[in-house]
Amino acid sequence: MTVDKGVIGLKEIDIRELGFRIGNAEDRDAGTGVTVIICEDGAVPGVDVRGGAPGTRETDLIDSREMVEKVHSVVLAGGSAFGLDASSGVMRFLEEKGIGFDTGVVKVPIVTSAVLFDLAYRSAVKRPDLAMGYEACLNAYPGNYEDGSRGAGTGATVGKVMGPQNAMKSGIGSAAYEVGSVRLGAIVAVNAFGSVYDDGKLMAGPRVAGFPVSTEDLMIRGMEAKFRGNTTIGCILTNAKLTKSQANKLATMGQDGFARAIRPVHTMVDGDTLFVMANGSEETDLSFLGTLAAKAVEKAIVEAVRKADNLGDDILTCSQVNSVKLKHGLDTF
């Protein structure tokens, strides 16, 4: 890591400055979508799957014991297990561009993915598919990625211990930092069972009398985790030079950001999954990088909730709840 004059400073940057191509595609009427992250030359992957109900594709090859050293895309999608179909569209797009693992007879794009459950939000029959995955790839090239209720976060909600009707709207968020010559960012689609916190302050959760409350408190009082349509999924991006073993450890450390911002997290009704894509040559300390990753993941989760859009229904956003609080002279978040 190169740092001018021995002074380390933390600088916030845009996630699009990390050199990856990021694109969203969605069906807002159906309340679902796809976010694709592409690295044409391949990136060293890592993954950490913590939730009790994950939906993933090609995560076994990320194990450090396996042959393939790089992936070309990480796909985050709604649609539960049906949404894994979106990866086929990403594979088709990458194959057309000649991107993939060279087998000698054909280049095979290495595409790994994770899905969240948004089927209870709007439509259970319109899900991300090959066409939507391909569209997300097309949208990755203009560089117009945006946070909010877009892409994989289109149908995302949080705080569902009292059922989806009492949840709050969420989306997909990002955060990125630069320290010296090291850059790291995170993109997270937040569809958590639990409540979301910003620096310890409750932002979003199940609504009682119109306002969010602590999921933990409700569960401690005896409410069971019955609703199974959840899961937070994301990816850490960095220009650090990592092995697969190191990238996997970075994913594990990055999950601390989940635990800081979501309570409870990694439950049996979540499929929480966090990927890593490392595409650079910057040598740096892994403990430092993990600290930065947890910070970026935590902020990305907060941004996913803060920038969520109301799609014309009764599932309120953070900003809508804040407006009601202001009218009643209550503290906002």
From TrEMBL:
GO MF entries:
aminopeptidase activity
The superkingdom of the source organism is Bacteria
Q: Which family does it belong to?
A: Belongs to the peptidase S58 family.
Q: Which InterPro entries match?
A: ArgJ-like_dom_sf (IPR016117), Peptidase_S58_DmpA (IPR005321)
| Protein's UniProt name | Peptidase
Output the Pfam families linked to this UniProt entry: Peptidase_S58
Q: Origin organism of this chain?
A: Youngiibacter fragilis 232.1
